[in-house]
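Known limitations

Files may contain more than one protein. Parsers should not assume a single record per file. Below, a two-record file is shown to illustrate correct handling: read the sequence, read the token line, then continue until end of file.
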Amino acid sequence: MGTSSARNQGRPERAPTARGRLIADKTARWAVTAGGLAIIASILGILVFILVEVAPLAGGAEVERQREWSWDEPLPGAFLVDEHRSSVAFLRDDAHLTVVSTDDGRIIEEIPLLDLEHDGDLLPLQSAKGVPGRQILYATTADQRVLAVRVDWTVTFDGARRVVKADPDRAIVFDFGVDQSKIDLAAVRIDPDGEAVAAATTEDGRLVWVRRLVEEALFSGETTESWIRNGRPLTRAIKAIAIDEQLENIYGASMDGALGWWRVRNDQAEDPQWVRSGDPITRLSMLIGDRSLVVGRFSGALEVWFPVRRDDEPERLTRIRQFPALAGPIREIVPSMRNKGFVAATEEGNIGLYYSTSGRLLWAGESDLPASKMFMTPKANAVFVSDGSRMIEFAIDNPHPEVSLKALFGKVWYESYPEPAHVWQSSGGTDDFEPKLSMVPLMIGTLKGTVYSLLLAIPLGVFGAMYTSQFLHPSYKRIVKPTVEVMAALPSVVLGFLAGLWLAPRIEQILPGLILMFLLVPISAVAVGFAWRSLPMSFRGRFLPGAETVLYIAAVSLALWCAIRLNTPFEMLLFGGNAQEWLLEATGLQYDQRNAIVVGLAMGFAVIPIIFSIAEDAFSNVPNNLISGSLALGANRWQTVTRVVLPSASPGIFSAIVIGFGRAVGETMIVLMATGNTPILDWSPFNGFRTLSANIAVEIPEAPLGGTLYRALFLAAVMLFVFTFVINTVAELVRQRLRRRYAEM
């Protein structure tokens, strides 16, 4: 006891830790932990939200059999359904429109289409049909003419109850002037203004067509109609026929499976173009926009064709895509009134839902009655199938038919394109537009902008950091490093504004001088370096290390000034006085004012401070004993920096480059304002591009909530996340390997 007490007497007593300090430390630790977890949870929550928005793109269509009706007395003829799916209008053979309620299947209205006192000789009607994808019904009359009517629907409200009524236009009777020759096939179109066209084949082997023109008086508002008729003999028997709304193209299918195309110019049909296409064709139908032709075959195969022009050759009818076949001969093809989708049915009642652009079979099923008549509702949310005595409604939930892996990442052959291509064009001027949602141009644009900016930022950032850390005097370093880091505080919107409105026009004016700069600036820098080294050491020793920077700045400034002054002579010497015309004629590249060069300079300016700051820290953190040891062994300063310092700092330099890469990939405002935002698939530095991030900024304000474009933009965000995640992961693996390799130096 005494010995222990004596030993403790020589030691100072440790002051007890204040209780308040312990509480503060624990509170701070828990606060920091909670903050970190909250940040991680927030990031994961954002990622989950994005994935939830993208997930519906992977789904297909859902088709559900819903209501069914039957009638004791059959209702023959074709039929139409209003967009609210509340009424069905049948065209009967006595030229009456019979309207049936879908609530209980009862007849709610009978509308005569003809004045029987004057037009009774037209009855009875035969072979009533509906125009696929249109609210039009037509039938052959008793004297071999064609009666057609366009049916509109009026909506009124009785209190809270919606009342839908059929409102047919005046029936149009097409007289082909064929002297009572029997009409085998017919096709009709009527536009909302009353102008109409019809084409038919006759029993005696002729193709005939008629056009109805309507003119409205300017002041009185009275309308007058006129008719244009024409025809030409057929060399083959036609089994199916289809026309476009302007009667500019007539398509026919022969008995032996050949597909014919007549181009009508000034109501004169040119010689047909025949294409042998396979087994017999049973049905033809035009998709919305009247450019694509859907072909159904006896074997159940389905194809899409449209005219294609290559180079200076005339247009040729070309098979673009094929779809999975249905079991049995195709009997009906009904296109959607909203997009490039269509429904096909066989004689056995097999039904398939397809989408042309994405090339997808979205759904296939069976009906227990032959699909002799079929109609897709205007909203494309249901298909009605009838055999006259029964009718079945199939409800369709098909939110994103345009999307498939091929449509997003593969080449797609779009209408009016000479070949398959990667295209982003999300909107157009009409409802006939075919959305083009390829992500490839956006991915290439993202890489293009990043590469061109890093071509400037990496050399200047890394070598500038190496010079500042290893060669510059500390007194100069205290000025240079904060100045460069302040550059990072410049808002990207300001850089984009200056690049788009100030830099781009000047680059366009001095393009040859810019090329000359890349020659004069390195030459002048190297020349100044040799000149400085040739000066006596007694003279150079009077200055602090790094003072030669003033000479470099002066030399580079002089080189830039000379390049600008020599712009016109240099352009006259090498480019014949106009660099842009020479570029177009010699290489075929079009010069756009806002291009990758402008973005590379502006975005490179934004990325340089990040790379410089991190790389400079990496150089400065190399242990001094390595540097001193290298110098002591006889290596000069340059050998020490390149062979000792640079390898040791390589993990940090690599991290700087990767962080700069991520900054460039995610940049939005500079790209948005300094480039043309044209989503083209081209690596040329002389034209613009569009990046994933800029595309989101441009398109998201106009994207309908929950629509395909809306979700495609979220998919672009997922791609950005995956892209940066993969790059950062690979970069971290490389950095760890470099650290282990040089850890023992």
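...continuing to the second record:
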Amino acid sequence: MSTNSSALNTVLFAGGRGSTSISSALAMNQEVALTIVLNAYDDGKSTGRIRREFPGMLGPSDIRKNFSNLLKTQNVDSHVIPEILEHRIGSVSSLIDPYGPRIDAEVLGHIESKTAQIPRNQGDKILAWAEIALAELRGIQTRQRDFYDDMAIGNLVFAGSYIEARCDFNSAIEMWNRLFNLRKVEIINITQGENRFLVAIKEDGTLLPNEEAIVSNQSTVPIRDLFLLSDELSSGDQDELKKRSLEDSVEFLKERERLPKVNPAALAAINSADIIVFGPGTQHSSLFPSYMTLGVGDAISQRNEIERVFIGNVEADHDIQGETLRSLLYKFGSFMNKGSTVARDPSSYVTQCFMSTSRESIRPWGLEEGFSSRVAIGVHTGQWTIDGKTHDGNRVASGLILLSNRLQELSTAVGYISISVVIPVLDEVDRISHVLEGLLKFDWLAHDLIPEFVVVDGGSVDGSLEIVKNFPVVHKISLVRGVGRGEAIRKGIESATGEFVVTFPADGEYEVGSIVEIIRVLRNSPVPVVFGSRAGFCVDSAKQLREIYGGRSFLYFASRWGGILLSLISGLLYKRWVADTLTSVKGFSRKALDSLSLAGVSADWDLQLIVDSSIHELAIAEIPVQYRPRTVKEGKKIRVIHGLRASLVLIKGLSLR
């Protein structure tokens, strides 16, 4: 597939089924040209049997699965071909004569019964390839009796194409690409087709002698290393390794390792990609071995101008029990380095990670406490799954397009935007956990938003910061006590990377949904500043204020009339009629933030926004938000002195106009 200059050229490193929902969504997007890159080291069960009978051939299973998936995705009438390719022989006949005509009739009969429903050229070629493979197998007398048991017909079809391609594995894949002609999609093998066998060794010295063992149920001891060998380990080799120490076993396997060279087609796809995606799946078989290809790491590391995104697993497969995001990323980097000319940090290969939360769990699988999401690689958390087990391909695909540096107009077409929520905190030990859980459980993706959360602690002494540390998905900033809420917000905004920024308090008085409403205004109107107003939206604001201040008349009147006074001053002096100047929920576009000074310590920060917006002629919109106030006893911090400072800001600001 030649690259398409008008499309988003996307390279997806994938396996068999782990990334199918994502590849399907990308393949359905008219703005995307997709290259699926995979390895073919599968040797489990029927795939291992067919590899042994066709010496030199890699495993065809993942090739078959990806073609089947995409044929069903791109054309509702193409379900017949996947029905042929995915049909399991053993599920039809329990009596299989491995040396007689029975199996031939069964396989060819099944294909012939379906070919009338598909284009003739495709049906004839599928049948011809199956006949080639069966003819070859009839001459093999060493085949075990259960050879065809649970064998996918598609594996036989691929074996036939492999023979027709003169035993050139990559040429056989090219023949499949031409025959099935997927729209803006190409499937390629990462290597030049060298026959290699995958072996792993665990941290306790346990040998996993083949790919089948790597994906099977095993202990929670992490896998230490992977190796690609030219030949399968013999039973004698395995016995010898059991006698050796861990380090000696590693050295033995290193000496036997022969890394393959990168497929020129894969290299061309990487070099012309607008975004590179490292998909989810069985990491130590479907994905990590692909990176152990000579030339791949060097090529990817040189694409500094594009996003390279690691999609985290939803849960732990057998091979990654006991792993974390940190350990997987470092393994990812080490396997990339195997085939590279120099060793590099993982951040040389990955720029972003997608990690999935759910309504039940705010901590994505693999994201351990203490992981800093902003050191070098950005982490984007959200409910990326359909059911907590399977990635929602449409959500992930939209997020990937948003992150791409190329064709930025696609983010608007797709609908996703990035936002930053800045949360200043000061001594909120009783409320901060509830607030952060609410933010993390909220389904932002349902509103086409990808959030980042920036928590700025202003010197808490009650344990608030320790609670925040239990939420590894948020970016944390710690300031000395006394700097003030305004400075905390300014620092948070400086660190924010979203297209829009919203301030949100840690006191639990506001609903998370208010952020969505503010973003909707910022996104769909030219207004660059939006205040979430509490004024006029209480059932009985006077009664509510009395409850807040516990019958303290002075504070009650100061709060009620002080707020009105600030609104009047801002309206009269600056023509900015804002009913709730001191709301804690405010939203800004990037354009607005470039103009605002963000100066101030407490309430004066809020009023400085009005002064600056007037100077730079920025419109302010005000929308109602849900509000559940707490009382002074419960920790409400606003005081009369804050209101006085705010009014002085308005008066002093006149000299700047």
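Parsers that stop after the first record will miss the second one. For reference, the second record is described as follows. The chain has five domains: 1-39+263-413, 45-178, 197-256, 416-508, 510-657.
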